[in-house]
Write the structure tokens for this entry.
Amino acid sequence: MDSSPTLGGGWGGGNVLAVGVDLTDVPRIRKALREFPERFVKRILTESEAAYCLSRPDPAPHIAARFAAKEAVIKCLGGGVAFKEICVERAMSGAPSIVLTGKAAELAAGRKILISLTHLPEIACAFAVLVETEGS
């Protein structure tokens, strides 16, 4: 009998294959935005992520949450992935989801990554879970 944890109830189902967590210091992100605004954003965020984050009154916590999400996803996938191959999308409800491209999509091999994000004025946190999907 397989003793792997499973997820149900509309959360994507499947066995948990890997987890990743990351904490990001919001003041560090704010400093990078101040010192290298365009270069930093272009290196870390996809166009859709940048559009969302930069539309916020204080973009730093939102960028920090996405930075943490990308780090958490990279940990799930075992490394070797570029930040821009990982995109945090936001549903109308505000719920985040992950879209992978390039090598990140290859490493996920049809599996799904679930993500949870949160941020405070000083710190952002992301927790990612790589799960099997039916047929993977």
